């Protein structure tokens, strides 16, 4: 399926990838991705690792934080889209627009349930649970008829064991922490749908156009929710506004936007699995910055999660080698 013309090129970090694959269920994976996409994926993971610690340290309502990080990102992307991608926006088909709006709805749900969890449980536990995205991504792909290799199921299973170990730490602390764990887990489920819808839209639509529609939808939904729940959207200190700007620049624009960029070439399985690296990254930042040292039991849990990630990547490489021999 040919890509939609994009007009003038966007900045390197936001340009679209190679031509889309012919099979909508195909997950390109690491073996076929341009080197620049692998580098951008690393930058994205580092950027989203700042999200949980920054949110935990920001003195503003959780849903308001979610609204502002999306609204500010829309403010940055709108002039870029109108000046360089106007034709692409105009040519977005009805299906692509509807899928982008649906992705924005799921992203709003992701933020709406995850951010409150950061004030109810530890940063390490919340981040680990919200990054169970690859587990739900694999299940959703299976429901769509795409069979994943046994090693992918093994890897996601291993990662889930690590999640259970980390959740068990909070079970011994309080019922409030358990409720926070449940919200974070729901956030991971919503993120899986968001990643899959984004991968589908990105087959024919560039990063800027898709991201603008998606973030705008998310911002509107979160704004309505904040107003309905009477959460303050202003009146913050200068320090809080600075943290909101930093959150937008790092976790939103460098994090989520670059993930939207690379999902086209890497595919939803590898992209969502790589997000697991956010867990140790956020825990390290929280320990160094907030002094929030995770319990001793959290360390083996993080190691198990990373072991599951390594297994999924190994499955991708074996699948690539098998495909090359068959070709």
From TrEMBL:
One of its GO terms (cellular component) is membrane. The keyword Ligase does not apply. Signal peptide: none annotated. Residues 7-16 have a biased composition (Low complexity). It comes from the Bacteria. The chain crosses the membrane at residues 38-60, 66-84, 96-117, 123-143, 150-171, 177-197, 209-234, 296-315. InterPro entries: EamA_dom (IPR000620), EmrE-like (IPR037185). Residues 1-29 are annotated as: Disordered. Keywords: Membrane, Transmembrane, Transmembrane helix. Coiled coil: none annotated. Residues 38-167 form the EamA domain. Belongs to the EamA transporter family. PANTHER family: ACYL-MALONYL CONDENSING ENZYME-RELATED, EAMA DOMAIN-CONTAINING PROTEIN. This is EamA domain-containing protein. It comes from Wenjunlia tyrosinilytica.
């Amino acid at each position: 399926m040919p890509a939609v013309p994009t007009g003038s090129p966007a900045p390197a970090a936001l340009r679209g990838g190679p031509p889309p694959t012919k099979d909508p269920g195909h997950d390109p994976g690491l073996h076929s991705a341009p080197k620049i996409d692998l580098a951008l994926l690393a930058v994205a993971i580092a950027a989203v690792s700042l999200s949980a610690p920054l949110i935990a340290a920001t003195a503003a309502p959780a849903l308001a934080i979610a609204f502002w990080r999306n609204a500010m990102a829309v403010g940055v992307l709108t002039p870029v889209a109108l000046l360089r991608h106007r034709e692409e926006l105009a040519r977005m088909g009805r299906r692509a627009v509807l899928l982008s709006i649906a992705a924005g709805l799921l992203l709003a749900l992701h933020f709406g349930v995850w951010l409150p969890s950061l004030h109810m449980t530890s940063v390490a536990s919340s981040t680990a649970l919200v990054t169970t995205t690859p587990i739900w991504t694999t299940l959703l792909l299976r429901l769509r008829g795409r069979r994943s290799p046994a090693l992918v199921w093994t890897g996601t299973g291993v990662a889930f064991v690590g999640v259970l170990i980390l959740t068990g730490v909070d079970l011994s602390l309080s019922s409030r922490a358990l409720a926070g764990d449940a919200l974070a887990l729901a956030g991971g489920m919503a993120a899986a749908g968001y990643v899959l819808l984004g991968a589908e839209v990105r087959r024919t639509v560039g990063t800027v156009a898709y991201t603008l529609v998606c973030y705008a939808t998310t911002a509107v939904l979160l704004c309505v929710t904040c107003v309905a729940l009477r959460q303050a959207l202003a009146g913050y200190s200068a320090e809080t506004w600075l943290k909101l700007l930093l959150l937008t620049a790092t976790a939103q624009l460098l994090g989520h936007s670059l993930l939207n960029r690379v999902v086209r070439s890497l595919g939803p399985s590898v992209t969502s699995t790589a997000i697991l690296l956010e867990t140790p990254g956020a825990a390290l930042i929280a320990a160094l910055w907030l002094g929030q040292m995770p319990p001793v039991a959290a360390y083996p849990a993080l190691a198990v999660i990373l072991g599951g990630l390594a297994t999924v990547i190994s499955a991708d490489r074996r699948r690539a080698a098998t495909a090359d021999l068959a070709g």
